[in-house]
Write a structure and sequence with these properties.
298 residues; mainly alpha; 2 domains; 13 helices; CCAAT-binding_factor; CCAAT-binding factor domain-containing protein; Noc4
Length: 298
């Protein structure tokens, strides 16, 4: 038998899909709002349930509410008090409230910008983060200084991150430039100074992405990656630096889950295919003996 608390949790945060959840009457939605807020303000939230709630807010909880803006305080508090994984989920909920329910939250992109650190590439939620970041930066109405700051921060990180993530970041910047052509000047601008982060006009320590001077800088970091030892990374960088106005965005979803093992297997298969093209008569397996033996004691 389920306890009252378990039944309440199942009612508020169902694990299975419910039919016609958005067709509840206004009275039912208001009742849901009251019970939800009372539960969120209680001390019954463990880490697992907390994450489950944040995951369900955009798709399952908000559609059942009469006034989704009531979640604003909970989501803001979640960003301030939880770990980075929960912060990302909290920002997703806030983004829904901003774009669909007219919530005013001027610090959103500043908080998002602050999450762009080297640690994000070693976290298990990396794929979700960049999936959501791609959504957050889609609007064509975002200020050019802000978009330039994200592009520049990502470019700077591309020099420090694991090799298997570099194509993801380069492609992400590529798509940003396609969506926001104004920042194309960061490609076209010639770097008169030496490639030295200390001489770059971009202020990497500035917390406000609207004040980093990124739009006055260039993407010299991507230019340096055109000489990368790995052909995939070098090709991605060259593609970005030679970007044309009529180019289309590229799909980043297949790059989100790539790791070292997958990259190694890809390189190995490419090497085998290359050997086959050079000489189709030769076996692609690695030789272990110069002369084929006839018998064991020959």
């Amino acid at each position: 038998m389920k306890t009252k608390e378990e039944k309440l949790i199942q009612y508020l945060f169902p694990t299975k899909k419910k039919n016609k959840t958005t067709n509840d009457s206004m009275d039912e939605k208001q009742k849901y709002d009251r019970r939800l807020l009372a539960f969120l303000s209680s001390d019954k939230l463990d880490a697992t349930l907390y994450r489950r709630i944040l995951l369900q807010i955009p798709t399952k909880i908000i559609p059942r509410m009469a006034n989704p803006l009531l979640l604003a305080d909970f989501l803001t508090s979640s960003y301030e008090t939880q770990n980075n994984a929960s912060k990302i989920l909290a920002l997703h909920g806030l983004y829904i409230l901003m774009t669909q329910y007219n919530l005013e939250y001027p610090f959103f992109f500043g908080k998002l910008y602050s999450l762009l650190t080297i640690d994000i590439f070693n976290a298990k939620y990396k794929a979700r983060f960049f999936y959501l970041l791609d959504i957050f930066l889609q609007s064509s109405h975002l200020p050019v200084n802000l978009i330039a700051s994200f592009a520049k921060r990502l470019a700077r990180l591309s020099l420090l991150i694991p090799q298997h993530d570099q194509c993801l970041i380069i492609t992400f910047i590529y798509n940003l430039i396609i969506r926001h052509p104004t920042i194309r000047i960061m490609i076209n601008r010639q770097q008169t100074q030496s490639i030295d982060s200390n001489k770059d006009i971009y202020s990497s320590k500035e917390l406000d992405p609207n004040k980093t001077n990124a739009i006055e800088s260039s993407l010299w970091e991507i230019e340096s990656l055109t000489h990368h030892h790995h052909p995939d990374v070098a090709t991605c960088a060259l593609t970005l630096m030679s970007l044309r106005k009529k180019n289309n965005e590229r799909d980043i979803h297949q790059l989100l889950e790539i790791d070292y093992d997958e990259m190694f297997e890809h390189d190995l298969n490419r090497s085998i295919r290359s050997d086959k093209k050079k000489d189709k008569t030769k076996n692609s397996e690695c030789p272990i003996n110069f002369n084929m033996t006839v018998s064991l004691f020959d």
